[in-house]
Amino acid sequence: MVATSLKLRELIQEIREAKTQAQEREVIQKECAHIRASFRDGDPLHRHCQLAKLLYVHMLGYPAHFGQMECLKLIASPRFTDKRVGYLGAMLLLDERQDAHLLITNSIKNDLSQGIQAVQGLALCTLSTMGSAEMCRDLANEVEKLLLQPSPYVRKKAVLTAVHMIRKVPELSNIFLPPCAQLLHERHHGILLGTITLITELCERSPAALKHFRKVVPQLVQILRTLVTTTYSTEHSISGVSDPFLQVQILRLLRILGRNHEESSEIMNDLLAQVATNTDTSRNAGNAVLFETVLTIMDIRSAAGLRVLAVNILGRFLLNSDRNIRYVALTSLLRLVQSDHSAVQRHRPTVVECLREPDASLSRRALELSLALVNSANVRAMTQELQGFLESCPPDLRADCASGILLAADRFAPTKRWHIDTILRVLTTAGTYVRDDAVANLTQLIGGAQELHAYSVRRLYSALAEDISQQPLVQVAAWCIGEYGDLLLEGSCEETEPLQVEEEEVLALLERVLQSHMSLPATRGYALTALMKLSTRLHGDNNRIRQVVSIYGSCQDVELQQRAVEYNTLFRKYDHMRAAILEKMPLVERGGPQGDEEAKESKAAARLLEAAPVPTEPQASKLLDLLDLLDGPSGDAQHPPPLDPTPGGALIHLLDLPCAPPPAAPIPNLRVFERKGLQLNLSFVRPPETPTLLLITVTATNDSGGDVTHFICQAAVPKSFQLQLQAPSGDTVPAQGGLPMTQLLRILNPNKAPLRLKLRLTYNHFGQSVQEIFEVNNLPVETWQ
């Protein structure tokens, strides 16, 4: 006897009573077989019941694709009970990736033309859920007619459907412009909220719509003023705040309309000040409205006093007990620190207090903001606070904190001694977390401060004697002891406490570094070189140094072994040259922020050289002979052609002699993508030494009001090319024109064929997951010829 089909309630009960997953699968397989048989028999009266059971099975994660065509049949049925289940099935089982969804376009069009509100609502819900671009184009006129229907129920659903259509097909914006102005007069909460959302989508996607809706700014201001001053709708008030959802949406729209527009911003100023001062902040709903008000003030061309008020509001947010509000305040202040630095600076003590937050995300944001607030006026106080935080901060923040302190000291150091002390304290506290260039920067700084050589070597010796576990500190100390060991032994530094150091103590400390299991191979190399240099700076016997160096001649580390062998050779065969070879290092010019003044001096010297008289021919030829030594052996050297005797030309040729031929004209940049404020630009470089190699730098910038997160850029080239993608600088493109994200592509084109590039972008923007695939065929010819 064949078992009868279960009702929906019975099916749910039987599935819930299943003890194991195998029993559940058995029940579902049996019922799916009954559902298939019913679909084949074509029973019109029970089709909607069978599809309802199938939809429940689909919700449990089991395949239900065989019910797609039944959805179409139910939608075409004249019975409301069939249409209801059919439209629900279409929303769950159909999407744009399946061609079957196009078959319901005509049914939706017919239902939208009917006067039955419930049927029209079902059709609009389905269209706004799974409508493809083709369906939106075909049904846009029907939806536009329903925007002005007398029924609020239908108008609300039509507005939400129009929002979906604009997101799918932005070029449909002209169809929905006229009805929006009329819908702004609505008193119905749902219709007005949907209309504001629709206008926002139109303005973000169409410059023409943005210009058109700037005319309704006074009307929007009046609506928001009504919400703030009177009870617009008690039904939608939350915690004493009148309709906060509508207020937030209006503020977002005003932010878009007032951006880079003086007249619209002027109209909003008084209202924004009223909202900022009258909103109750004791509840979360009021804080949400206030935060949107702050973002709007900062994004439009508001008055200076209003911007200070917005920063002060964020400062009050920092004192809130809710961690989420404090995090939002820190993030917003971090965006404003560049444009309103003085206003943000007033809240520096509160920001520093946030460093001690137990929440890791809050302390990280507070650290980033604290580093951004450092300037020449407060560098001493801020650095002291940051160093205190460095001693107790979590390990995952130590690298960022140490690097930030070093960069701040490099930019704003008041004196060289303070700069050296700051770096030494960072190396002592968190030496293993500093950047790779910290050692080189400190050695260059000490080498350039001749008056601080004795002070530096004594400080470093004392620090090294206390702790040899911090490898960057050990490397700098070994270098400094090797260079200025004679000053350490003299003990004539007036800026530190008297310290008597014997030669044996110095040698023993360096041997301890060499023998320590914590020392890296590079650190041992520093110590071995320091010992070698001390052989010319100490006055005692060098036998102990020679013995240590000879031991490392058989070291397993190849580089350290080579260095020891060379030093042994220097002792045995070239002892008469050892003092000259191991003399103190010359001063090395520093790069980075502190090199700006030196660059200016170089430019001034170049201008003086241009005004200098042109040297005579014998002097020029001597200089040519000297420069030839840098390029190759003297026997094979080829002299360049004679210099141009014209005034000014001789100097130009002289300065060009060591260089390669003049570089080719730069390849123009190319913008390949732009959507909702996100822009993707390509810049190109072809190294002269490898003409078949093309370096493409992908730069992503974001001018919109929301961060672009989880950004991934992937590329593909034809098989005749070789592509290598370097790691990107990050996966977040900050809003409001923040720090751009970059990624390097290395493309090898051995055949010099025309280059075609296919890019795929995936990211999250404004809460939506976006994927774009496009091909770039208009690359400049300079990239491959």
From TrEMBL:
<dbReference type="InterPro" id="IPR013041">
    <property type="entry name" value="Clathrin_app_Ig-like_sf"/>
</dbReference>
<dbReference type="InterPro" id="IPR008152">
    <property type="entry name" value="Clathrin_a/b/g-adaptin_app_Ig"/>
</dbReference>
<keyword id="KW-0968">Cytoplasmic vesicle</keyword>
<keyword id="KW-0653">Protein transport</keyword>
<dbReference type="InterPro" id="IPR011989">
    <property type="entry name" value="ARM-like"/>
</dbReference>
<feature type="domain" description="GAE">
    <location>
        <begin position="665"/>
        <end position="780"/>
    </location>
</feature>
<keyword id="KW-0333">Golgi apparatus</keyword>
<dbReference type="GO" id="GO:0030121">
    <property type="term" value="C:AP-1 adaptor complex"/>
</dbReference>
<dbReference type="GO" id="GO:0006886">
    <property type="term" value="P:intracellular protein transport"/>
</dbReference>
<keyword id="KW-0813">Transport</keyword>
<keyword id="KW-0472">Membrane</keyword>
<dbReference type="Pfam" id="PF01602">
    <property type="entry name" value="Adaptin_N"/>
</dbReference>
<dbReference type="InterPro" id="IPR002553">
    <property type="entry name" value="Clathrin/coatomer_adapt-like_N"/>
</dbReference>
<protein>
    <recommendedName>
        <fullName>AP-1 complex subunit gamma</fullName>
    </recommendedName>
</protein>
<comment type="similarity">
    <text>Belongs to the adaptor complexes large subunit family.</text>
</comment>
<dbReference type="InterPro" id="IPR017107">
    <property type="entry name" value="AP1_complex_gsu"/>
</dbReference>
<dbReference type="Pfam" id="PF02883">
    <property type="entry name" value="Alpha_adaptinC2"/>
</dbReference>
<keyword id="KW-0175">Coiled coil</keyword>
<dbReference type="InterPro" id="IPR008153">
    <property type="entry name" value="GAE_dom"/>
</dbReference>
<dbReference type="GO" id="GO:0016192">
    <property type="term" value="P:vesicle-mediated transport"/>
</dbReference>
<dbReference type="InterPro" id="IPR050840">
    <property type="entry name" value="Adaptor_Complx_Large_Subunit"/>
</dbReference>
<dbReference type="InterPro" id="IPR016024">
    <property type="entry name" value="ARM-type_fold"/>
</dbReference>
<feature type="coiled-coil region">
    <location>
        <begin position="1"/>
        <end position="28"/>
    </location>
</feature>
